[in-house]
Q: What sequence folds into this?
């Protein structure tokens, strides 16, 4: 039977959940306040296999998340929604020492046995490197990983929400609050309309999950982190679509999107939390550093600064699943700096859970209840 489901948050998690729910014939309402969204600020790299992080549950989530893009794009295309927001363009990893590149090379080969999507792996030098990325300077060698991809979060969620609307979802640019009755059933409160009773609710509110659940007596172990990204616009002919993304050692990555668009990001500003002001004292040095590898960017006339808020739990682990004490309410948060990689898969799994289906990943490995605690009576 058709279920009435509300999705709070229209970032990558909420937009993917909404698309799959609406596609399955559910009656979906999406609410998004449009403020600070991490997804809209992020132009990101999908290349999780090279991480030194030793958390196996996290690695499984991001590795399967990267692979899930094939299904997502195929489903969108079969529904008539093609997008160039995502491209598997390969990644070039730059290292200060040959030893570092060799170490990452060996890790990539080892992990490729479980993750064939990693694709070609090779250390490129001289003319091979020049051919892979002609404008690249100041790099004698680089590790090429064929499965690396890039995605524009803003463009992808736009397509996902268009597809969700096509299947009947309604999209509301509103900030909502929640109310619950004594049985733990949730209602959505919009600024104007009457309370809406629902069969299920998905909370995909990113870094704002604590604020959303606090009035119901919950304490949520999630904090916000400011992220800034610079998007440069050059002559349309200056960059072909096919250049790989560049991942130097350190904080910034360089993402050529083709049509003259290059993204440089991103900052990780813990002390700035939910602040959304562009700050040149942070972005100018990022730009300067990017020009050491791509000097042609110096001539760029126009630049946009995108600012968004990432969500982190105290142990940096993402979480998703049922919210303790609430009926048919499912949440995700804490996706951190790999949320464009894991977010579509998590959104898909939340849609499955809201329809009473099993999750294909063990949700006990990412328990929402460990971070969302009922600590007070409802106001
Ligand atoms: C600059 C930057 C660069 C990044 N680069 C990468 C990268 O290279 N690779 C990668 O994998 N990840 C990257 N990330 C991380 C990734 O973007 C995030 O982890 C991911 O987008 C989080 O998605 P989300 O749907 O959980 O949250 P969000 O995208 O933040 O969406 C949550 C939405 O909920 C809305 N909301 C909250 N409360 C309410 C309410 N009460 N009512 C209505 N709406 C509400 C918010 O306004 C927001 O729009 C980057 C992030 C940033 C900021």
A:
């Amino acid at each position: 039977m058709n279920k009435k489901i509300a999705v709070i948050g229209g970032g990558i998690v909420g937009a993917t959940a909404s698309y799959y729910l609406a596609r399955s014939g559910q009656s979906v309402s999406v609410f998004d306040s449009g403020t600070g969204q991490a997804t809209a600020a992020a132009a990101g790299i999908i290349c999780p296999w090279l991480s030194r992080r030793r958390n196996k549950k996290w690695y499984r989530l991001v590795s399967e998340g990267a692979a899930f893009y094939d299904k997502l794009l195929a489903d969108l295309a079969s529904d008539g929604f093609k997008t160039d927001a995502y491209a598997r363009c390969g990644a070039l990893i730059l290292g200060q020492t040959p030893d570092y590149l060799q170490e990452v090379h060996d890790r990539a080969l080892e992990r490729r046995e479980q993750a064939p999507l990693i694709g070609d792996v090779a250390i490129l030098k001289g003319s091979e490197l020049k051919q892979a990325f002609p404008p690249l300077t100041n790099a004698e060698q680089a590790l090429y990983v064929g499965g690396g991809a890039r995605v524009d979060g803003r463009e992808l969620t736009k397509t996902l929400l268009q597809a969700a609307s096509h299947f009947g979802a309604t999209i509301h640019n509103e900030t909502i609050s929640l109310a619950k009755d004594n049985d733990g059933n949730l209602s959505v409160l919009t600024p104007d309309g009457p309370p809406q009773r629902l069969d299920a609710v998905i909370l995909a509110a990113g870094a704002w999950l604590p604020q959303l659940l606090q009035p119901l007596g919950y304490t949520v172990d999630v904090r916000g982190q400011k992220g800034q990204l610079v998007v440069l616009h050059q002559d349309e002919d200056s960059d072909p679509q096919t250049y790989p993304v560049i991942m130097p050692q350190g904080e910034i990555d360089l993402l050529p999107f083709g049509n003259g668009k290059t993204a440089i990001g991103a900052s990780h500003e813990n002390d700035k939390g939910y602040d959304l002001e562009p700050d040149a004292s942070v972005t100018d040095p990022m730009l300067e550093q990017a020009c050491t590898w791509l000097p042609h960017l110096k001539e760029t006339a126009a630049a946009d600064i995108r600012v968004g808020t990432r969500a982190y739990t105290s142990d940096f682990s993402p979480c998703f699943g049922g919210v303790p004490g609430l009926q048919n309410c499912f949440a995700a948060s804490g996706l951190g700096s790999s949320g464009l990689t894991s977010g579509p898969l998590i959104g898909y799994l939340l849609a499955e859970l809201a329809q009473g289906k099993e999750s294909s990943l063990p949700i006990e490995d990412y328990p929402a209840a460990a971070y969302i605690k009922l600590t007070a009576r409802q106001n």
User: Anything to note?
Assistant: Residues 56-78 form the longest helix (23 residues). The mean pLDDT is 93. The chain has nine helices and 22 strands. The CA atoms of residues 69 and 344 lie 7 Å apart.
